[in-house]
Amino acid sequence: MKSTRLAFHSRTRAFTLVEMLIVVTIISMLAALTLGGYTYAMRSSKRRVTTGTFEAIKLALERYNTEFGEYPQPAGSNQMVAFPPGVATYDTSGAACLYQALTGDGFDQIKGVTSSGSGSAGGGSGGSSDGKVEGLAEVKNKMFVEIPQTIFTRKGATYILIDGFGHPFQYLKAAIPTTTTGAGGGGSGSGSGSATTPTTINNTYDLWSYSEDEVNTTKQSISTLTDPTLSAKWIKNW
Fold it and tell me: How far apart are CA 176 and CA 231, in angstroms?
């Protein structure tokens, strides 16, 4: 009888398969909720950083415009670079131009600037960025009073401004409309009109971050006019 009672008590303390499944399910749900909350918090934090940097860039661009009478224009375009953790590629030409124009470190990524003597940025050999902001030539072009290490990075030989997700900011200067005159000069039958196809939505510049969107990273701001859903996750100035 004694051995029987011991066996009985042993059986009552054991978990059944159903109970084990319930426990595992609860633990899985709690883990999913915790991970989901963490992911949401991290994404929200990155968006806040992006928004803050975005506003700082806009203010600095206005200072640049006041100082030089125009907004900077990227020297190149479609400088596509892959960024982790995914396989998405981003155009870094605008981000490289912004970095140089607003920090004073270099000038070869800014169209129309051929030397630091023109009143624009200084920098390393050949006008490239060297990661340092120093010297009288660079001080004049320093639109950011202080630039945190977290908002720029080096990609290859180029320094760029990045958002809170570690991806390059996108920047396009508006094209200046040009007027063409029809055959016959200014006489009868001549005509004129804008020959420049708009490349931006704003008439000054378009600035945006793709934020957490890693699908539409080759789309331009002008593309959102025909499909507004493209920019649902973007942070933008239009």
Answer: 25
